Structure formats: C-alpha cells, structure tokens
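Chapter review: from sequence to fold.
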Amino acid sequence: MENQSTLLKDAQDAAVNLISSKVSKNVRFHTLQHTREVVAACEKIAETLPLSDEDKIALNIAAWFHDTGYSAGQAKDHEMISVQHAVDFLNAHASSEEMIKKVTGCINATRMPQNPTTIIEQIICDADLFHLGSDNFKEKSKLLRGELMEFGGEELSKKEWRQNNIAFLEAHKYFTAYGQTNLQPVKEKNLVELIEKKPEEMAKPEKKNKDKKNKNKDSELAEQAAAEAKAKKAKENQTERGISTVFRIMAQNQSNLSQMADSKANILISVNSIILTIVISTLFTKLENNSNLQIPVILLVVVCVSAIVFSILATRPNITHGTFTQEDIHNKRTNLLFFGNFFKMSLPDYDWAMQEMLNDRNYLYSSIVKDNYFLGVVLAKKYKLLRIAYNIFMFGLILAMIAFAIAIAIPQAGEIYTPGG
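The token string follows.
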C-alpha cells in the first residue's frame, strides 16, 4: 500500500473534487464544509482512544468519502454511492481487503438509523452528528431544513420541522465516551430549548392569519411537553440516586464483613502461635521424664497447627490474570471494578476501558452487580474456612485438655505405689 500520508492526501483531493464539482448547489447542509467538520471531529474523538494506525487511516478516508454519494443527485441511498466512490479509490491505490472492509463499514454505519458495530464506526457516527451537541445546532438545523426543501423537494413548516427535531434528538444517542461526556449534555440543552420554545419566540409565523386559539394550544402543548420532560428527568435522577445508595450500602457491608473475617483469622493465628510457642519451649522438655504427656502434647500441636492453616487459607488472596482486550470491553465481559482484572494493563488502556464502562449505564451496573456477587462468593469461602478453624480450635482444645488431665492422673509406667512412702 502506498505511503500513508500520500494515501490520505489523495483521498482528500478525490473527495473534494467530487463534492465541489458534482454536488448540487441546492445541497445546503451536506457540503464540503460539513465533510471537513466531520473529518476534524473524527480526528478529535480518535485522539481520546487507543486506535491502530490502520484504523485511523480507514476512519479518515471514510470521513472524506461518506457524503460523496450526493453527487448522484439525490439524498436517498447516498451511502451506497459513497461506498462505491471509496471502493473505486481504494482499489486504484491497491489497498488491502481489510482496509476496504473497514472504510465501507464506517460509511454504511452513518446510514439512518445508525447502527455501528466497531469503535471506528462509532466514532464516525458521532462525528457525523457532532452538530447536535454543539452551540451552532440552530444554524445547522436551518441549513438542513433548507436542503430538504430545495434539494429534497419536501414541504416542511417550522412547526413540523421543530417537532421532527424534537423526535430525532430524543431518539438519538452518542456511542463514544467523548460524545456521551462532551456532546450529550449540550444536545440535551438544545432539546430542552426546542421543547420549551413558545410559539411567539419562534421565527415569524408561516401564515399571518393564524388565530389566537391555535397559538395558545401550541403554547400549552409545549409547556406540557416541557413539564413531562422535566418530570421524567427528575424521576430518572431519583432512581439513579436510589440505585447508587443501594450499591454503596452493599459495598460497605461487604467491606465490613471482610474486615471482620480477617480480624477473626488474625486473632486465631496469634492465639495458636502463642500456644505453640509455650508448648515447644515448656512441655517438650518434659516429655523425656513423663511419657504420658506425649499424646496430649502432640494433640495440642496438631490442633494449633490445623487452626493456623485454615485461618491462613481464609485470608490468603487470589489474583487473576490481570489483562483484558478491546473485544472484552465491547462485549462487556470484563469487570473493571476488581483490580485483578486490569493490574497488568497500561494506564491509557485502562483509562479508555473505564470511560467506555462509565458511559454505558448497563455495563456499569452489570459490573457493580458482578463485583458484589463475587465479593459475596469470596466472603462465603472465608467464613466457611474460618468456621472450620474455630471448630478445630474449640473442640481440639477441649480434647487436648482432657488428654492432659488423663495423662496427669495416670501414673507413669514403672511407678510403684508404696503406702507410707
């Protein structure tokens, strides 16, 4: 394949030539300016993600060609024509099949409704609708309405266009972490402004003889829609706070139970270590003179050692492989809340993965649920081992004391009792 910079420069020249010379002047929105803005937006979003050089090139080429299909003279299925332009260009430059697949995938992903399947497809989808989450949304909206009327032949009143915009913004979602963090809040603000906008604040009415009754009705509908939107948002916020509280309480309880288990295990280890020290330093020296103490001493040592072993097993940590792949994150297979799943990864990879998870509410909640579940599994194992250790210590200590009592009560072999000394 040709030098990368040369390939990108040729792609830009080819796309600029197609749009400048063959796209109708009635196209007001999907112009060369829009294409340049999409390319810039793709580069901006791509900077926040760990993409390969091939992915960056494919994304850039797709961005330049994604609207060249308007050169066919109609907006319908323009993506199909854009794909053909891109494929002809790539074949002429001896590009690989993988590169062609990535470029065509990106262009097709911009078809409405958007349905990207890879990270670069998500990037170009967000870049193509970047204006929805920008301050120049109103200006771009006017250009698009003019294009639909002059190029597409549609008759759209301002009221109809406003309603269409509201429906589109409510249904739309950004796919990348950058879009969800930086563009989504501005888009929501634009949506609220559209919903709350009163008829008298809109541009001059299309019909000068609109009666007052219709205006009041429109105003009431707008106010009702705004009230419903606010109520819905308040309810969602309340639900979010409730869910956060539940997860926080669960995490605190799990942490407290884990600390209690570790504390109990440490106490048991310390007590049995002290007993072993006393036994070894004191009783072992008396075994030669009193053979009856052998069994009780051995029993006590076995009890202490067993209790210590099970206490250590209860507190011994387990560490997993510590790595994940981009595919694991896209398929939501990795729980990033547990350090054992990421401690071998680089900071940029972990940061990207966390951004993906934090901006996907279902993925985030699923990770928290999994984290609580596996913490519970670990706690159950801890307390089971701890219970075994305490049972060994309790019953073993009782048996050892009984054995000591018997050993002391029974005379040693060879001893003869003689009255009066």
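Two observations follow directly from the output. The two ends are 111 Å apart (CA to CA). The first helix runs from residue 4 to 22.
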